[in-house]
Design goal:
This protein has 908 residues and is mostly helical. It has 44 helices and eight strands. A hairpin with an 8-residue loop joins strand 7 and strand 8. The longest helix is centred in the N-terminal third of the chain and has 18 residues. The two termini are 54 Å apart.
Length: 908
């Protein structure tokens, strides 16, 4: 791309990912965009310029131009060679260069200002974009500033690295609107990197490492494409060369003193202002302000820590240091630190790696970090202890490496888990130790396990003749078979073998784990022995080191949720949460929080459910755990208690993650959440696609129990909304029969609600109302389900022209949803009630639709698009839009969701 060029709006396609520019910036004539190198200022400036609808003249000075007086003016003149004023400005510049003295002398300066103003006026209409404005030479800035005051109607967009509004204003205008180009959000980074087909965890990591800087994210993604076999995060201190160049350019925007202070912050795991004041003295605050102005610091940390915007900044600063210099800085941080565990960490890192005393100090500090719940720090310290233990002391090294592997597994730190496992496998260890290491690696890997078959084979090979160890490996294989292979039958058989082996070995702890896994799978498969198997597991002594989410107590709470006993589930889950948080097991903590969120939601305590879901999502996003489980819970809870738009984001992220990780279980769950949200927001056609895929996945996995994932009534309601009545009836009959055979009475009220909607479509409003009243009476302990049933009753009564009953049901639903803070449902119910109270009660006074309006409304209510309706009725799309506008106005509606509950859908 040339330094200067004229851009016409039609000649430049919009990038799929644009930095977000505030809407109120679009109405001003002068805008200054600031942001670090690679932040997208150029893209944002071009996009903003195109939105103004004028030709764009772009100037782009280079670093060397800043030292050449009037280089910017010359670029301006040469960019518009066809204009007479440009040729005159060039002549004035040539004349000024030919004269002795500076071109910014009083005479030359006046002529330059006059000619620059004349050129800008002659070039109108256009938008002037000055990219890399930090390199615009002072003489050009002064002349352009004066000329722009003479042309107030000329839009100007300046993009530069660092600028904060000052009393004197910016050269492009005293009233220039300052915009800091924000970093890309995580979804934007995912879109930007979609061509690289990275797994979600890699995308999340790149977002954190880049801080949302698009150029840095692309550099990291391209490097991943060339090093796909290298495990992520094992070389945090080494950035690929393009990323290093970009970060170096970013760091060069601040002074060496700022870079040194940021290096101190990078070497501490939780730097705060007090620590940095100790190492930098009174200048710390002003240095941090300079770093923040350059976009190097994120000041909004809730815990008060000082964090670089992108973790790659800290990685580059640390990588620049020779080892002896790094040890010296750690020594200074050890002197400055007021926290004993972190002081020990710095002391260890300041010591020679071959000093065995540092290994002992790290091991002791890891114990203290673990005891106070700082599990991320414990994982780092325990691995340091293992790495610094002399190889000739094999038993101690193995013991410390096993501790490090377990700490990494608890915190979901895959890279440290792998490092610890390599230390163990490289030693002459016992079968118990090798199996423990491999199991810890499997547990730390979660859904990110690569080469699962080889790893399981290695673990089984390390445990010959040891039924207790073999049983532990089989339990993990069972989990893998269920989640990743989608084969609960095989998974159940593996858990059964593990149970037999553990019982034969007299290992009650492993027996309890195996029985729990077996009971989990039996419930999914609808096995009659589920309760007996779980009871056997609950009867065994509880071992402290079983993961909390793998205990029979947690499974019993899950089964209580499946059976709609949320209070019982909550009572069981709360102590398990305390235990999970105390042990620092991140995956277990997330699972317990998710279960609690579901329990609170079923019980109608929406605020508590949101809190648990938010905590689970935050913990997931802060570790290496798969996002799919937390996204599923967030989608359900947010869609009921928060915002449906955010819920849809969570559900779609969960679907994408589960697909890429080949996680069949949470693919079904996130698709179910997505289908449910699309249904309740009035998009039945899209809901049908998601819910039918759930049905196919559950059939493929031979899931038999309809209480585990309740997609059946959602799919039936979707089929009814789209007019597929026979399919809906068949599904309801089959599901009702299965639920009755298995004794899953909790499933029946939702099936009755869907059946009632089907009855109403068929015109049997009386039967539909009786079904809904009966179902509502059975749901007093589940207020939100009761509210949804009452809302369905209101719609049914209205369609049956019983408005008094419709108002009563809508009022009850509104009260329930409002009381329990189910905000999206409360809004829907309140709108329904408002329409009923505002509508006339005399049937003769009801708004009447013409036959064309009614047919159009019926097709829209069935989920047909405007184009589909136009084709069916042989009219134009504009005619359909105008007809539906009249229908909405006559019926007092605002959306197709409301239309679907007001007008009987057309049968396809």
């Amino acid at each position: 791309m040339q330094d200067s060029e004229m851009w016409m709006n039609a000649s430049h396609e919009t990038s799929p990912v644009l930095p977000v520019v505030p809407e109120n910036a679009h109405g001003t004539h002068r805008v200054v965009l600031s942001g670090p190198p690679g932040s997208g200022k150029t893209t944002a400036a071009a996009a903003l310029g195109r939105r103004l609808g004028l030709p764009v003249l772009r100037l782009a000075p280079r670093p060397q131009d800043a030292r050449v007086p009037c280089a910017g003016l010359l670029e301006l003149a040469l960019a518009l060679p066809a204009l007479p004023a440009a040729r005159e400005l060039t002549a004035v510049l040539d004349e000024a260069v030919g004269r002795p003295g500076s071109p910014d002398g009083s005479g030359s300066a006046l002529r330059l200002r006059r000619q620059a103003a004349a050129l800008l006026r002659e070039a109108l209409p256009m938008t002037l974009v000055v990219d890399n404005a930090q390199w615009l030479d002072p003489a050009s800035a002064a002349v352009l500033g004066w000329a722009l005051r003479m042309t107030p109607d000329l839009p100007v967009i300046a993009a530069e690295r660092t600028w904060r509004p000052e009393p004197a204003g910016h050269w492009c205008g005293e009233d220039a609107y300052a915009v800091r180009v924000p970093p890309l959000t995580a979804p934007q980074v995912a879109t930007l990197l979609s061509p690289y087909r990275l797994v979600p965890r890699e995308v999340t990591r790149i977002h954190a490492r880049s801080g949302g800087n698009p150029a840095l994210a692309l550099a990291l993604a391209r490097a991943r494409g060339h090093t796909a076999a290298v495990p992520i995060a094992e070389d945090d201190l080494v950035l690929p060369a393009p990323a290093r160049r970009l970060v170096g350019e970013w760091l060069d925007t601040v002074s060496e003193e700022v870079q040194e202070l940021l290096t101190f912050a990078a070497l501490d795991d939780r730097p705060d202002l007090d620590l940095l004041n100790e190492v930098a003295g009174p200048a710390a605050e002003s240095l941090l302000a300079e770093a923040e102005a350059a976009g190097l610091l994120d000041p909004g940390q809730p815990d008060g820590t000082v964090r670089c915007t992108a973790s790659a900044i800290g990685a580059e600063l640390a990588a620049r240091l020779p080892s002896h210099a790094r040890r010296l800085l750690h020594a200074r941080l050890a002197e400055a630190s007021r926290d004993s565990v972190r002081r020990d960490r710095h002391t260890v890192l300041a010591a020679d790696a071959a000093d065995p005393r540092s290994a002992l100090q790290a091991a002791r500090a890891a114990v203290r970090a673990r005891q106070r719940g700082d599990h991320a720090l414990a994982a780092e310290l325990s691995l340091l202890a293992a790495q610094r233990t002399p190889h000739e002391d094999g038993d101690l090294l193995t013991e410390r490496a096993l501790t490090a592997a377990r700490d990494a597994a608890h915190y979901g730190d895959l890279s440290r888990g792998r490092a610890a496992a390599r230390l163990i496998v490289g030693q002459d260890t016992t079968p118990d130790q090798r199996v423990d290491a491999l199991i810890a690696l499997i547990d730390a890997s979660g859904q990110h396990l690569r080469g699962a078959d080889e790893l399981f084979a290695a673990a089984l090979h390390a445990a010959p003749g040891r039924p207790d160890l073999t049983a532990q490996v089989l339990i993990r294989q069972s989990v893998w078979a269920n989640v990743s292979e989608g084969d609960p039958h095989r998974a159940c058989a593996l858990a059964g073998r593990a149970t037999d082996l553990a019982e034969a070995a007299g290992d009650t702890t492993t027996t309890a784990m195996a029985l729990t896994m077996q009971a989990r799978l039996q419930r999914v498969l609808g096995h009659p022995d589920t309760a007996t198997t779980l009871a056997r597991a609950l009867s065994l002594p509880r071992a402290a080191f079983i993961p909390v989410n793998g205990t029979p107590q947690h499974l019993a709470a899950r089964h209580a949720l499946f059976d709609d006993r949320p209070e019982e589930a909550r009572t069981a889950l709360l102590p398990l949460l305390v235990e999970a948080e105390r042990t620092g097991d991140a995956e277990a903590t997330v699972d317990i929080l998710r279960s609690l969120a579901e329990a609170e939601l079923r019980a109608g305590r929406c605020a508590r459910a949101l809190d648990h879901a938010h905590r689970a999502q935050a913990l997931t996003d802060g570790t290496s755990l798969s996002p799919a489980p937390a996204c599923y819970t967030s989608a359900l809870v947010e869609g009921t208690a928060g915002r449906t738009d955010l819920a849809l984001v969570h559900a779609r992220r969960g679907v994408d993650t589960a697909r890429q990780e080949d996680n069949r279980v949470f693919l079904s769950r996130n698709l179910f959440a997505l289908g449910h949200l699309l249904l309740v927001t009035g998009r039945p056609k899209e809901a049908l696609e998601a819910l039918e895929e759930v049905r196919d996945l559950e059939k493929l996995q031979q899931v038999h129990d309809p209480s585990v994932l309740r997609w059946h009534p959602e799919l039936a309601e979707t089929l009814v909304a789209l007019g597929h009545l026979d399919q809906a009836q068949s599904l309801l009959d089959d599901t009702r029969r299965t639920a009755t055979d298995l004794g899953r009475d909790a499933v029946l009220p939702a099936l009755e609600r869907a059946q009632a909607l089907l009855d109403a479509v068929r015109g049997d409003f009386g039967t539909a109302a009786r079904r809904l009243n009966d179902a509502a009476d059975r749901l007093h302990h589940l207020p939100l389900e009761r509210g949804r049933t009452l809302l369905a009753l209101s719609h049914t009564e209205r369609r049956g022209r019983r408005r008094a009953g419709a108002r009563t049901a809508a009022r009850s639903a509104t009260d329930l949803f409002t009381t329990h803070q189910a905000h999206p449902w409360a809004q829907t119910a309140a709108h329904t009630l408002g329409r009923l109270e505002d509508a006339p009660t005399d049937d003769d006074a009801r708004p009447r639709l013409t036959s064309a309006e009614r047919r159009c409304a019926e097709l829209a209510a069935a989920g047909a698009s405007n184009r589909d309706i136009a084709t069916a009725l042989t009219v134009s799309v504009k005619t359909v839009e105008a007809t539906l506008t009249r229908v909405y106005r006559k019926l007092g509606l605002h959306s197709r969701f409301q239309l679907a509950h007001t007008v009987t859908p057309a049968h396809e």
